[in-house]
Amino acid sequence: MPGIGEFWIVTGYDEVLALLTDDRLRAEHQSDESTPAPAADTDNPVAHTLLAVDPPDHTRLRRLVTRAFRVRRIAALRPRIQQLTGELLDTITPAGEGDLVADLAVPLTIGMICELLGVPAVNRADFRRWSVAGVLPPAPPEILRLAEEAQKKLTGYFRDLIEQKRADPQDDLLSDLACAGSGDNALSDTELIGMAILLVIAGHDTTVNLVGTGLMTLLRRPDQLATLRADPSLLPAAVEELVRFCGPIGLGLARFAAGDIEFSGVRIRRGELVMASLAAANRDPARFDRPAVLNVARNELAHLGFGYGIHFCLGAALARLEATVAIGTVLQRIPDLALAKPAEQLRWRTTSLRGVAELPVTFAPQPRPQD
Ligand code: HEM
Q1: Residue 74: in which H helix or E strand, if any?
Q2: What is the Cα–Cα distance from 165 to 302, expressed in whole angstroms?
Q3: 368 in a domain, yes or no?
Q4: pLDDT tens, 121-158?
Q5: Residue whose CA is at the smallest distance from ligand 1 atom 27
Q6: Which residue, judged by its Cα, is nearest atom 39 of ligand 1?
Q7: How many Å is the Cα radius of gyration of the chain?
Q8: Is position 269 within any domain?
Q9: Which of ligand 1's atoms lies nearest the C-alpha of 312?
């Protein structure tokens, strides 16, 4: 692949599952003699996030944030997610048109993760521009350049914000982490900044795609849309099916061989890159009945769209809840929702994640809500 070179790609459901639980395949870059780890990595907070490290560092970092993302704690956010979704839809319903990516998915998901972390509202628009910061090697060089620039901006931003939180702690996750004690709870400043960047990027960019691409996928399948409108209790199952069918992780999850190993009958050498293709695993006909068909009533939780094993998505409960509320509210409030241009002409993202970059829609204008 241009900019990445050669790598292995694992596509079967069982094989991806095996890969994600195999500790010979690591998240951290494993150098071999010919490709030493990039020296700059030691200063880059994004290279030290949960996603990019292995146990024991991974275990320590994950323990620090797990509590904040417990299912019950996330469930308590439902009224706030509902309120924000309602306010955002109020801004477009009187006009009878809008872009459900820019006007709903982006501000909803950024708003929620920033509220959790304690990022002031004034800075939130910047995060959208910087969202490419989550990308690490392996990736094409032009994307890595953009990512590095965004990483620098975000590092500076969070360095200042963390200082403020230490001086004047508030009731938010960043204050908790910034003031976490010593010993087992200790986080280096680089790790703390990395965690903040990871949460703010992973905490919205993926979900934007689930809401935007998910709604687009439903609009293109009127039978599935009608089934869902007729029985809104299917919403959680429909969201799960959308993660399986058109989830935002395109090419896959990167792992590196920690030694010369044999995996699934293939010899892989130390340091070689192995990609787990979640998209392919989620459409494996050996695992899913008619996998290329969207079925909102499928009710299949065993898809791999949120990963598997020790790196299983920390924010899955939040993503599920945001997508359920956003998609459910759009369908309930806008019965005549239609794409404003043919699906084939929609702009798609060009960096890292898979999804539509816009979702222009039209419908009959609705009276402005009373104050
Ligand atoms: C549709 C939305 C989302 C999808 C499809 C998704 C997908 C994933 C996947 C596949 C992984 C595993 C990565 C790996 O094994 O290398 C992951 C990890 C992670 N996700 Fe998500 N994610 C979503 C939303 C979120 C949200 C809302 C948050 C934060 C609030 C979040 C935070 C994280 C974090 C922190 C990790 C790293 C966990 C670890 O390495 O221990 N994600 N996500």
Answers
A1: helix 71-75
A2: 39
A3: no
A4: 777 777 777 878 877 777 778 888 888 888 888 899 99
A5: 203
A6: 311
A7: 21
A8: yes
A9: 12
Q: Are 239 and 210 in contact (CB under 8 A)?
A: yes
Backbone dihedral angles phi then psi of residue 291, each to the nearest 5 degrees: -65, -25
SS (H, E, C) 217-229: HHHCCHHHHHHHH
**Which residue owns the Cα nearest ligand 1 atom 25?**
315
Count structural domains, the chain.
Answer: 1
The secondary structure element, H or E, covering residue 27 is none
Residues of the chain with pLDDT under 70: 31-42, 181-185, 370-371
By most ligand atoms within 8 Å of CB, the mutation choice from 19, 70, 255, 313 for ligand 1 is: 313
Look up the CATH number of the domain holding residue 249.
1.10.630.10
Q: Is residue 367 part of a domain?
A: no
Give a yes or no: residue 208 inside a domain. yes
Q: Which domain holds residue 301?
A: 8-362
Atom 15 in ligand 1: residue holding the nearest Cα:
311
Residues 6 or more apart whose CB falls under 8 angstroms from that of 145 comprise: none
Tens-digit pLDDT profile for residues 241-261: 999 999 999 788 999 999 999
Q: What six digits make up the tokens of 61?
A: 């970092």
Closest CA to 174 of 202, 199, 151, 204: 199
Ligand 1 contacts (CB < 6 A) are 27, 50-51, 62, 113, 198-199, 202-203, 206-207, 210, 243, 247-249, 253, 305-307, 311, 313-315, 318-319
**Nearest residue CA, atom 3 of ligand 1?**
206
Neighbours of 112 (CB within 10 A): 22
Q: Which atom of ligand 1 is nearest to the CA of 62?
A: 41
How many whole angstroms from 5 Cα to the centroid of ligand 1?
25
Let me know the angle formed at the C-alpha of 353 by 351 and 354, rounded to the nearest 5 degrees. Answer: 105
